[in-house]
Amino acid sequence: MSLSRPPLRVQGLVRRYGALEAVAGLSLGVSSGEIVGFLGANGAGKTTTLRCIAGLLSPHEGHIEVAGADLAREPRVAKARLGFVPDRPYLYDRLSAREFLAFVAALYDLPAEAAERRAESLLERLELAADASRTIESYSLGMRQKTAVIAALLHSPPLLLLDEPLNGLDPASTRTLKDLLREHASAGGGVLVSTHLLDVAERLCDRVVILRAGRVIAQGTLAELRGAHADRSLEDVFLELGRDAG
Amino acid sequence: MNRAAVARTGLILARRVLWSGGRPRQGVLPVLLMLLLAGASVLALTVLFGSAAAAQVPKVVHVNLLGWAFTLAMLMLVVGDLHAVVSAAVTAPDLELLRAAPLSARGILGLKLAATLPRTLPPVLAIALPSVLAYGYVNGPPSVPALLLVLTGLWALPLALGTLLAIPLLRLAPAAHLREPLALLATLAFIAGWVANTFWVPRLASDSLDLAAALRALPAPPEWSPATWAAHAIAGGRGAASSLAGFAALVLAALAAAAAVAGELLEVVMSRSTGTLGRVSAASALRAPSLASAFLKRDAALAMRDWPVTLDALAGLALWTLLPLAILPLAPLAPLSVARDMVIALSVSLGHDFAARALPLERDSLAWARLSPVGGARWMRLRALGLGLAALGMVGVAVLVVALVFQLSLAGAADVAVFAGAAAITTLSAGLLSGATFGESAWTDPRAMLAPGGRLVSAIVSVALAGAWLTLAHRHPATPVGVGTALAMLAASVAFALVPLALAARSLERREYSGR
C-alpha cells in the first residue's frame, strides 16, 4: 500500500448531466489511515462523485489524484490504486464468486497464490466461503454485496470507495465490514464511504463530508461539526445544516 | 385500486417507449416490423384463399385452412405467452412492490399480464387477424361480434394457458433460468410460423402445383381444438353460434382457472426468485495464472452457462452456412465456388450472431473495463482473442466439412480457408463494434441483445461485408488463389479490422456508468 501520498485528493470537480450540475466544484481529500463519511440527501451528488473518482464517469472539470496518480493522465495507475464498491455491484451472474474473484485478481495483475490466500481469507471472514462455488445469480442482495466488497479489497488498494456498502448486510456482516474498513485504515489506506446511516457514520468515520446540491456544505471531525454543542448527534448536525443551506 | 390511474400510468409508459422527447424511440421498430409481418401475411393468405376460390375448392376446405392458421397462431402464442408470464414474474422488485400494496393476487397478476400486452399481441395481429382478413376478403366478411370475440379469445386463451403452465415450470427452475430458453423458443416458433405463412403458403399457389388437389388433401384440424371452433365461428353458417359459444366458454373457463391459481403462481415465483441453483464444480478454484487465460476461462464459462445464447448463435451459424445451397438449383456453380460461398455466408453469422453479442453478454459487468486498470483497448483485444479462437474452431470445422463434401484438393481447401478467414476477420471486427455501440446490458431475450435498430445495422453491415467478399470470390476464377493473393486478402482484412476494433475500444473507454 502506497503511504507516501494521500489516498485521495479531489479539486474543483464538476460533473453535469445535460443542464443539471450534479457535482459543482467539489473538493475533498482522504488521508492515510482515515475513514471519511460521505453524507448528503438523495440526489446530493454522492454517487456521481464516487463514480467520477472510480473512473466510471468522466468529470467535466476538476482534478482527481489517487495515491499520487492523476486519474486523467495516468488512469491505469490510478485505477490500480483504488477499489470501488458501487451501490449496485458489477458481478458476472453466471460465474461463481471464486471464479469472479479469480478474474478480478487477474485484472489487477495479482500473483495467483497471494490472491487466492487473500480471497479465501476474506470469503471466510464475510462468511461466504461455503457458497463461493455457487453461481452469483443465486445470491441474495447481501451476498452480492459481500462479493463486491471482497473484489474491491482483493488488491489492498490505498483508496477504498464504498457507495452504500451496508445495503442488504445482516448485523454480523455489517460488523465484519466495519472491522475490515478499520483494519484497512489502520494499515495506512484511506476509505471514502457514502452512507445514509448517520449512526454508522458517527461511530465508524473519523471525519465526515456533507454534500448538498453537488457542493460540500460542511466537513470535519464530529467534534468540529458539533461546535459548541457537544451533546448534539450527527443527525442533529446534518438536519441543521440542511435547513441552513436550504 | 384506482384502475383509471393505473391504466393511465401504463399508457404513459407505453407511449414513452414509442415516442419521447419529441422523437420516435426504439420501441417503434418492433411495431413497424409487426406491421410488415402482418402485411406480408395478409398478402400471402389472400393469394392462397383467392387461388383456392379460383380453383373452386369447397368452402369447408377454406374453413379448414383458417382453422390451421388459428392453430398455428395459438401454438405460437402458447409458447410466447409462457415466456411472457415467466418474464413478468422475473421482475421481482416490481412484484415485491405490488405484493406490498393492498392488491389481490388476481389484481397483481392482471397488472403484470396487462404489461405483457405489447409482447403477446403481435402473433394475434400478425397471424390470426391477417388470416381472418384474407378469409373475409375472399369468402365475405365475418360478423363483427364473432371477429372481436375470436381475436380476444385467441389472445386470452394462450395467456391463461401460459399462466397455468408457468407454475409447474417455475417449480422446476427459477424464472431467471427459464426466461432465456423460453424467449428463444418463442422467437423461433414465431419465425417458423411466419416463414410457413409467408413463404410456404404462396408456393401452394404456384403453377407447378395442383392447388385444388393439394387443398382437398389437407386434413381437417381436430374437431376438439378451440382453433377449429374459432374458425367455424368466423365462417358463419350452421353451427357457427354453438362453436362461438363453446369457444367463449372455454376462454372464460381458462381465464377463471388462471385467476384461481394467481396466488399460487405468485407464491412460487417469490419462493423461487432466489432459490438454490446448481453448484459449479469444486474445480473452479480461485487461481488465474494470466490475464489472457482469465479472459478465456471467463468467456468459456459464460458461453457454456448462457447456453440459450450459444445455441441460438450456433443455429444461426448453421442456417447462414447452408443458405447458398438453397439457391444452388437456380445458379449451378463449380464446387469450389459453392464452398467459398458457404464459408463466406458463415462469416455473416460470426459477425451478427457471435461477435455482436460478445460484449452485451457481459451485461453491466462491462464496467470493469473502465473500473479496472486493464483499459478499454486491452479489454477489447482480449475479448477479440477469445472470440477469434472460437471462430477459428468453427471456421476450421466448416472448411473441413465443405472440403470433404465437395472433395476439394488441398489447394482448394486452402483457398476456401483463406476466403473464410478473410471474411470472418472483417465481420467479427464489425460485429464487435456493433455490440459495443448498440449492446443492451439488460437484455432478457437472446435474440435481442442489441437495441432494435442496432440489430438491423449489425445484420446489414455483416451481410454487406459478406456481399463484398462474395463479389470478389465470383470475380476470381473457380481455381485456388495463389499465395500472394491469399496473403493480400488476409492482410487487407486485418487492416480493415483494425478500424472497427479501434472504434469499439474507444467506445468501451468512453462508455459511462452513471447508475441512473
Question: What is the topology?
Answer:
The complex is a heterodimer of chains A (246) and B (516).
Chain A: E1 8-17, E2 20-30, E3 35-40, H1 46-54, E4 61-66, E5 69-70, H2 75-80, E6 82-85, H3 97-107, H4 112-125, H5 141-153, E7 159-163, H6 171-186, E8 190-194, H7 198-204, E9 207-212, E10 215-220, H8 222-226, H9 234-245
Parallel strand pairs in A: 3-8, 3-9, 6-7, 7-8
Antiparallel strand pairs in A: 1-2, 1-4, 4-5, 9-10
Helix pairs in contact in A: 3-4
Chain B: H1 3-18, E1 19-20, E2 23-24, H2 28-54, H3 59-90, H4 92-100, H5 105-115, H6 117-120, H7 122-139, H8 144-172, H9 175-204, H10 211-216, H11 226-235, H12 240-260, H13 262-272, H14 291-305, H15 307-326, H16 335-358, H17 368-371, H18 376-405, H19 410-438, H20 452-475, H21 483-510
Antiparallel strand pairs in B: 1-2
Helix pairs in contact in B: 2-7, 2-9, 3-7, 3-8, 3-9, 3-11, 7-8, 8-11, 8-12, 8-13, 11-12, 14-15, 14-18, 15-16, 16-18, 16-19, 16-20, 18-19, 18-21, 19-20, 19-21
